Amino acid sequence: xxxxxxxxxYYTRLGLAKRIREWDGQADIxxxxxxxxxxxxxxxxxxxxxxxxxRMPEMDGLTLVERVRLQYPAVTSVMISGFAEFAYAKQAxxxxxxxxxxxxxxxxxxxxxxxxxxxxxxxxxRSNSAALLNRLLYSAAEDANANAGAGDPASxxxxxxxxxxxxxxxxxxxxxxxIDGFLGALREAKLPVAxxxxxxxxxxxERIVLLYAADPATDLELFNMHMELCLAQLRALFRTxxxxxxxxxxxxxxxxxxxxxxxxxxxxxxxxxxxGLNRTNSYEKEAQRGRYNIEGAxxxxxxxxxxxxxxxxxxxxxxxxxxxxxLKRDKERLTVQxxxxxxxxxxLILNSSIEYLRGKHPECVCEYFEQCDISGxxxxxxxxxxxxxxxxxxxxxxxxxxxxxxxxxxxxRFIAGHYYEDILLDDIARKQYYVDPSYxxxxxxxxxxxxxxxxxxxxxxxRAKELLETCPQxxxxxxxxxxxxxxxSYFVQLFKKYYGQxxxxxxQAQM
Length: 511
Description:
Blueprint lengths: L1 E5 L3 H14 L4 E5 L2 H10 L4 E5 L7 H11 L4 E6 L4 H9 L4 E4 L4 H32 L23 E9 L5 H13 L4 E7 L6 E8 L6 H20 L5 E5 L3 E2 L3 H12 L2 H4 L4 E3 H5 L9 H13 L3 H17 L6 H25 L21 H16 L9 H12 L6 H9 L3 H12 L3 H19 L5 H7 L5 H12 L3 H8 L1
Parallel strand pairs: 1-2, 1-3, 3-4, 4-5, 9-11
Antiparallel strand pairs: 6-8, 6-9, 6-10, 7-8
Helix pairs in contact: 2-3, 11-12, 11-13, 12-14, 13-14, 19-20
């Protein structure tokens, strides 16, 4: 805190400075003997608190505080006087003076005043700094620091000191105030890292934390060691709490953009979707992981769009569920950036489907879905559920088209044209519809009353029967091959079980 004492009495200045240092050993205290000297010091570097005597040479205290109020409204002024005159007090209060102290100044009264002023000014500074930080982070401009009215970033971080940005979020019953609590515990650990936490404008459950070297002489190498201590302390605090918190930390740096560092911290924070809560994840570690690609991504996107525009929403939800199940199995290789990209790609497909359906049904109203950041989610499983809710919303907004063929009818038509091939339900589910085979198996039986394998067998047996009846030149082996069986002995067994007689006896009976 910066304090300016303006009083022509040397011992008054000395006494006030001593008491301020008792309260705050790090206070930046300056002194002036006259009002004019005080104003020159203020013009050079405005203090947080001005303690001004009413009667001083060149410029009295009342004139000084009036000038300061007009030119430097952020300065908190306190008037000091040896005169208990109501007129002085009234005029001082009109000039926005915070308090009025009478000489000789009572020590207890002065300490109480300092406590109140420090709390009020600290609260105001934190609010101003939070507003500035949010403007820097969420500005659309590339160089947020250059935005008009954005404020001075130097007020957030001391120039030239190594720093990192940490994003901390809470979930469940925990609140942002709980985050403030353990940030306070982190400060109380008296580590060589300054910890400044700010509320996020976009996320009520988030704190943006600036971590920087407490000692201006600290270089980047030493700061990295200090950060390890800081993060170890944070992990120890997490272990004492319910699973409700997570943190992401940027790379350390000297200079550079706070906004860029925050982007790194947010990406690291999103790693909790893969690693779980009550963990501190670092951007540096995540950046070292290789790129993860989903096999058949374009085909999956096309299939999903087809299902959505046909309003076959349960099948669309199964495609989404299948993809995220695959991602979940690959958590060890999956990167959070790939997870973000996959989620955003699905949202884009949903919006493309809405655009198509709105053109087909102009009377229907359905808003596009926001391309949201996955940092709003606290667990991996919330991602597919969110997309499922969006798919349900599409179904509610548009009428079904009776002309749309169901997936089971499609499969039956496929079997009719490919029964002679090696057909497996797993291949159809995974390669044509991108859904879980067990889901497709249940759906097929629900709509047809028989299992997929039973239906395929019935089609093959019916075709084999037709060939035996109409093509006497074909051998039993030829008929078996024609309906998808390379092993004629196996075909004979199936035919006999299905019709109660072998293919040979069936043919003889037709002659």
